[in-house]
Design brief:
Blueprint: H1 3-14, H2 18-24, H3 30-38, H4 45-55, H5 59-70, H6 76-86, H7 90-104, H8 115-127
Helix pairs in contact: 2-3, 4-5
Length: about 130
């Protein structure tokens, strides 16, 4: 979930407005906090720590949200795909993973090999 969504949810759950949050954050006015809540700007490290204290959550939780938003190893398409995946229910996720794995030619970890390949290998062993 993007950091701005997390911040909006925390603000709503705690009943805090942007102005309320700004009073708890060093060097941040209500306009800056509003920009964070809209996703137009990102808070700095010190501000994330202060946000975590204001909302009563571990700072690591907010940092993890920020890191997932900024992961340089992911392309925008990967971020979009992950966001779409997270919006699906469990059944839809399973179906999407099956399609993606078949397209990529990969199997689920621990999945058994197709029986045809196993039988073929057994014949090859007995012939040698």
């Amino acid at each position: 979930m993007p950091l701005d969504t997390t911040l909006r949810l925390l603000a709503k759950a705690s009943g805090m407005s942007a102005a309320d949050i700004a009073t708890a954050i060093p060097r941040a006015g209500a306009a800056t906090v509003s920009a964070w809540l809209r996703g137009d700007r990102l808070p700095g490290r010190e501000q994330l720590d202060a946000l975590a204290r204001a909302f009563g959550v571990p700072a690591g939780a907010l940092l993890a949200e920020l890191a997932s938003t900024l992961d340089p190893a992911r392309t925008q398409g990967e971020h979009d795909l992950l966001a779409a995946y997270r919006a699906l229910d469990t059944r839809q996720r399973g179906a999407l993973l099956e399609v993606a794995r078949s397209m990529a030619g990969t199997r689920r970890r621990g999945a058994s090999k197709p029986k045809k390949a196993v039988a073929s290998r057994a014949r090859n062993r007995s012939a040698s």
